[in-house]
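Narrative of accomplishments. A recurring question from our advisory board has been how the design workflow behaves on a single, concrete structure rather than in aggregate. To address it, we present the structure tokens for one chain from the evaluation set, followed by the sequence designed for it. No filtering or post-editing was applied between the two.
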């Protein structure tokens, strides 16, 4: 697959990016905790294996000015592990000289108590964001013999998170190599990318173009005992086969992404 096709497809689907804690604080405050940390640094190039990437200074500022979405503060991108949201006003996002800063007033819960203890112990060591960059929001250029993606804006910020493992570089490089091998078109690459990150696929999101099946037309009257041979059973079988194959590919990618070597695809 051509380089431009890869980056176009990558721009349309959820991306995970993580960073180790460099400037973080989580302290008790009233009936809960105050959290303050950099979720994504700007002006710093990260080596993702086959390409490098950075957030241009001002990229998050441009996005946040126009953003009206309710962005959640989660743990490990799990919507069930909710700590705060921008809609409630308990999560504030801004870009400062270091990057995208997340400030949150976190209600005391079993989850937040665990997060606080794990941050203090060092077991939670970084932050992560889920994002959809969108086409036209990044510049691709060559640096040091590799493609370099300079992100200038976002289409959507899906979440900001705490994470126990901010070392995403190896899995991103491995994942890109696998998608390039398995995908034979930009459309199939989009499906593979989204399949690998189902936790970031928002309900009702249209990040991957999928055609809705048309509503069935009124069925013609059929005499008793006769069954119309309209080919629907063959079509249903083919559709089921494609769905199974797609699920197998997604599972295979997840296995490779997490360091496994088992083969599930025929």
């Amino acid at each position: 697959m051509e380089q431009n096709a890869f980056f176009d497809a990558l721009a349309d689907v959820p991306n995970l990016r993580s960073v180790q804690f460099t400037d973080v604080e989580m302290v008790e405050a009233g009936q809960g905790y105050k959290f303050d940390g950099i979720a994504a640094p700007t002006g710093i190039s990260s080596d993702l294996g086959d390409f490098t990437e950075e957030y241009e200074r001002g990229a998050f500022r441009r996005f946040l000015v126009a953003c009206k979405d309710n962005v959640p503060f989660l743990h490990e991108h799990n919507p069930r592990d909710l700590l705060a949201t921008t809609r409630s006003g308990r999560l504030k996002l801004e870009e400062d000289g270091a990057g995208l800063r997340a400030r949150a007033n976190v209600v005391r819960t079993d989850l937040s108590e665990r997060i606080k203890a794990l941050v203090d112990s060092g077991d939670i060591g970084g932050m992560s964001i889920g994002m959809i960059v969108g086409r036209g929001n990044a510049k691709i250029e060559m640096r040091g013999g590799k493609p370099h993606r300079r992100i200038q804006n976002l289409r959507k910020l899906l979440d900001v998170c705490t994470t126990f493992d901010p070392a995403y570089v190896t899995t991103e490089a491995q994942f890109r190599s696998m998608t390039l091998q398995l995908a034979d078109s930009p459309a199939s690459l989009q499906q593979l990318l989204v399949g690998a990150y189902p936790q970031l696929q928002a309900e009702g999101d249209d990040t991957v173009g999928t055609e809705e099946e048309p509503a069935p037309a009124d069925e013609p009257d059929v005499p008793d005992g006769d069954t119309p041979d309209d080919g629907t059973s063959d079509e249903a079988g083919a559709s089921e086969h494609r769905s199974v194959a797609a699920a197998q590919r997604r599972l295979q990618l997840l296995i490779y992404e997490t360091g496994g070597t088992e083969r599930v695809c025929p």
